[in-house]
């Protein structure tokens, strides 16, 4: 080959060559339509009476032509009249590497940092670099000289919620990396350790267990979302004095099945549904006359804030119901995610 490289099926480097020759396009279309008119007449629905014929170009999709080409036999092929081209064939080529996936877990310590780019007003452009995904992806993109990246996580926390404990599982898919030698078997561990250290210079986030994973392994993050469990801690406030009887009621109520209508704050982007969720564990500790610390282990997808507040009666039972307090008299001041139950990164991978 002109580039001096030997083709191999095991390479992660792909060269795509596109040939463009339209000189005989109409002639080829007419030939296929003449011999396979019945196949091309199927357009997915019946035409109405007096409806004009569709443009034949609409029917000649790549899939349709592939199907018809497989039905060609030698007799039909001999009827095709070959002609010499009068113009040169145009071509273009592109180079691309396979996706490179980097996995790990992240902690978020700020209560004003979103997981992904986020704007305060509709139509406003998000401020660049002010999200967890950008803080992580920017470092990886620049180091591996990637064209772009995609940030995938196991769930998400609200902008004002901290992610603590061992962190939330994530994977970064890097597209068309131009620098891969540092990921060779001999230098991979040191490379990822140095990148992890660089990202952790940011005071708002911290990552751990950085490692290279496959695209198939990265799909684990989106599998069985509702079967996962998450642990939360919340500082709550009541408008009535807290009694030991109220605290005792909470300890006796788990495991607990709750029903949550799509919460008000996400109604604009989520369908209106009733969602059944499970509270696996619940305990409370009184801090003073009006404040208490709540610990929860819940099914993934549970809206914890709305479980505490009741969301105007849209969550039943709510924490107020369990404490036998009037709806609207309990609120949540601070919320933290303490654990996301997922074996990530895979144990077979050596993480730094």
UniProtKB/TrEMBL annotation:
Catalytic activity, EC: 5.4.99.25
Entry's Gene Ontology molecular function annotations: RNA binding; tRNA pseudouridine(55) synthase activity
Statement: the UniProt record of this protein carries the keyword Isomerase: yes
Every Pus10-like C-terminal domain range: 102-341
Key words of the record: Isomerase, tRNA processing
Name of the top EC class for this enzyme: isomerase
Pfam families: Pus10_C
InterPro entries, alphabetized: PsdUridine_synth_cat_dom_sf, Pus10-like, Pus10-like_C
GO biological process: tRNA pseudouridine synthesis
Family in the record: Belongs to the pseudouridine synthase Pus10 family.
PANTHER family: TRNA PSEUDOURIDINE SYNTHASE PUS10
UniProt protein name: tRNA pseudouridine(55) synthase
Protein's organism: Acrobeloides nanus
Lineage: Eukaryota, Metazoa, Ecdysozoa, Nematoda, Chromadorea
């Amino acid at each position: 080959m002109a580039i001096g490289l030997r083709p191999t099926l095991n390479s992660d480097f792909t060269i795509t060559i596109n040939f463009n020759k339209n000189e005989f396009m109409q002639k080829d279309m007419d030939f296929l339509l003449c011999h396979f008119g019945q196949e091309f007449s199927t357009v997915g629905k019946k035409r109405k009476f007096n409806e004009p014929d569709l443009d034949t170009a609409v029917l000649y999709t790549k899939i349709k032509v592939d199907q018809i080409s497989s039905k060609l036999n030698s007799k039909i092929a001999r009827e095709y009249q070959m002609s010499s081209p009068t113009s040169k064939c145009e071509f273009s080529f592109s180079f691309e590497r396979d996706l490179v996936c980097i996995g790990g877990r992240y902690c978020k310590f700020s209560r004003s940092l979103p997981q992904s780019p986020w704007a305060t007003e509709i139509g406003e452009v998000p401020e660049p670099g002010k999200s967890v995904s950008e803080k992580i992806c920017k470092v990886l993109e620049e180091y591996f000289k990637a064209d772009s990246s995609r940030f995938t996580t196991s769930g998400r926390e609200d902008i004002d919620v901290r992610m603590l404990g061992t962190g939330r599982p994530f994977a970064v898919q890097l597209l068309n990396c131009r620098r891969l030698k540092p990921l060779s078997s001999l230098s991979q561990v040191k490379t990822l350790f140095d990148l992890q250290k660089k990202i952790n210079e940011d005071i708002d986030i911290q990552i751990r267990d950085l490692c290279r994973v496959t695209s198939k392994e990265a799909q684990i993050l989106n599998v069985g979302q509702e079967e996962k469990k998450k642990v939360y801690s919340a500082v709550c406030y009541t408008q009535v004095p807290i009694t030991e009887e109220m605290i005792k009621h909470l300890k006796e109520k788990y495991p607990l099945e709750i029903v949550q209508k799509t919460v008000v704050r996400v109604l604009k982007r989520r369908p209106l549904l009733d969602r059944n969720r499970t509270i696996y564990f619940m305990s409370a500790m009184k801090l003073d006359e009006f404040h208490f610390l709540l610990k929860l282990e819940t099914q993934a997808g549970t809206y914890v804030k709305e479980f505490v507040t009741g969301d105007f009666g849209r969550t039943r039972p709510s924490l107020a119901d369990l404490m036998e307090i009037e709806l609207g008299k309990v609120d949540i001041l601070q919320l933290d995610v303490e654990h996301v139950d997922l074996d990530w990164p895979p144990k077979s991978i050596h993480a730094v």
